[in-house]
Write a structure and sequence with these properties.
The chain is of the alpha/beta class and 504 residues long. The protein is built from 20 helices and 16 strands. The chain binds zinc ion (ZN).
Length: 504
């Protein structure tokens, strides 16, 4: 089994913000989960470096576009480790290997008869680096995303014959209802296809900052086609001396935000068909993180800096919060207040206390030793089949629902502590065996949920499993009773509350 997940490549003109962190964290949760299933996993992220906005910004700074791209790509590279993202490669669209394969694939698209010369005229947003369809323009000829005035542009280009894929795309959507999800996004893409596809420019004539068109050196490829192909090109050179294409293509999941739905759900499969390449299995479209009701983006200037959040609370807390607070696939509001509430009530009070109580009682009553034996049958029903249920949800990219399944068991374990009151058992004569059973069940239950939480809370989960003396992360070890805990060790608080006040 192989699993290949991608984030969009991030446009190098902006600084990394919470929206970028969000997609990368989600992809990382999926990658880690599939590694727990002992699958062959490849996780790709990177930067999109061509196009007019980068060239314009560089010229405004008096530097070359490549210099600007080099400078800003470093900031995106630094984002991944800071949020504990375990990407296997970081692609840059200025990599010469990428450029060579873009040229090769698009020359094949032309040889296959899907490219012709023409003149394009339309409303163009320089910030989107995209022409806007007539039905996608705000009042006063403004970009619906950037709210800036669009310019009327006309140029001689090569066109991609998107219209000739109308029927094949409709068939694709009919045959594969999970090609795009959630369902609202599937419907949106399908209705765009059904409204009638028109050919789109494949190249730009006036620009030089891009991948040169091999059959006409006065043109560069339109930045979107260059960018989309990253998902394919990366596999051929990510591991020097080894072509991973056979092993990982087609991609299992492309994670994208809804503003780039059309490129991924319509242009991308058509382009792959034109190049005779296999289509990805799934495109999952997540929503926006909203700040005061507006989409968070650099160009709107309402950015919450993920690096600040991480510095105060740690990357685990950010990962947990984003996937817990906003159902993955929907829009949702995020705020400092709701972050601090989740940190306090869920991470510190529910999981943190469960861990510290369980370990403290084992140390106090049993000097850390856990007796061998069965776990309490009282919890069997609550935990039966849990790893498979979580896996089924992650298979559909329902990362918030999967986390909720796990969190229900964190709460069940806390109720179990209250129901069994081990501190009373410890004082009663003849209840030593019962106390052993309760403590063993708590340690084992905590271990099982922690294995499942690892994709969301990797650093905390690893610390906790180490303290429980059973660090095996394989998903099948998340069955209650599959553990081999013999002795636990005290650890410092996983989610200290004073972190909030001290700002440390
Ligand atoms: Zn725009």
């Amino acid at each position: 089994m192989s699993f290949y997940v991608t984030t969009p490549i991030y446009y190098v003109n902006a600084a990394p913000h919470l929206g970028h962190a969000y997609t990368t964290i989600a992809a990382d949760v999926m990658a880690r989960h599939h590694r727990q299933r002992e699958e062959d996993v490849f996780f790709l992220t990177g930067t999109d470096e061509h196009g007019e906005p980068v060239a314009d910004a560089a010229h405004a700074l008096g530097i070359e576009p490549q210099q600007l791209a080099d400078r800003n790509a470093e900031r995106f590279k630094a984002l991944a480790p800071s949020i504990e993202a375990t990407n296997d490669f970081f692609i840059r669209t200025t990599d010469p290997q990428h450029e060579a394969i873009v040229q090769e694939v698009l020359a094949r698209v032309r040889e296959n008869g899907f490219v012709y010369e023409g003149t394009y005229e339309g409303w163009y947003c320089p910030r989107c680096a995209d022409f806007k369809a007539e039905n996608d323009i705000d009042e006063g000829n403004r970009c619906p995303i950037h709210h800036i005035e669009l310019t009327r542009e006309q140029e001689d280009n090569y066109f991609f014959r998107l219209s000739s894929f109308q029927q094949r795309l409709e068939e694709l959507y009919a045959e594969r209802e999970d090609f795009v999800s959630p369902r609202t996004r599937y419907n949106e893409a399908l209705s765009f296809i059904r409204s009638g596809l028109r050919d789109v420019p494949l190249t730009r004539h006036k620009l030089t900052w891009g991948v040169q068109v091999p059959w006409d050196h006065e043109h560069v490829f339109y930045v979107w086609f260059d960018a989309l192909l990253n998902y394919y090109t990366a596999l051929s050179y990510a591991n020097p001396g080894e072509d991973l294409t056979e092993r990982f293509w087609p991609a299992s999941y492309h994670l994208v935000a809804k503003d780039i739905l059309r490129f991924h759900a319509v242009y991308w499969p058509a382009l792959l068909m034109a190049a005779e390449l296999e289509l990805p299995e799934h495109i999952f479209v997540h929503g926006y993180l909203l700040m005061e009701g507006e989409k968070m983006s650099k160009s709107l200037g309402n950015v919450l800096d993920p690096f600040e959040v991480i510095e105060r609370f740690g990357a685990d807390a950010l990962r947990f919060y984003l996937l817990r607070e906003v159902p993955f696939g929907q829009d949702g509001s995020v705020s400092t207040a709701s972050f601090e509430l989740r940190y306090e009530t869920e991470l510190a009070n529910e999981l943190g206390n469960l861990a510290s109580r369980t370990i403290a009682m084992l140390v106090r009553y049993r000097e850390g030793a856990v007796t061998a034996g069965e776990v309490d049958p009282l919890l069997a029903e609550d935990f039966a089949g849990l790893p498979a249920r979580v896996a089924a949800l992650v298979d559909r990219a329902e990362l918030t629902a999967a986390l909720e399944e796990i969190w229900q068991r964190v709460r069940r374990l806390n109720r179990y502590v209250e129901e069994q009151a081990p501190w009373r058992l410890a004082k009663e004569d003849g209840r030593s065996g019962d106390l052993d059973l309760v403590l063993r069940t708590l340690a084992e239950g905590l271990r099982a949920v922690t294995v499942l939480l690892w994709p969301y809370l990797p650093a905390s989960a690893e610390r906790l499993l180490e303290a429980l003396g059973d660090p095996d992360l394989a998903l099948d070890r998340a069955e209650l009773g599959a553990g081999r805990i013999e002795r636990v060790h005290a650890i410092d608080s996983l989610f200290p509350k004073d972190r909030q006040a001290s700002g440390a």
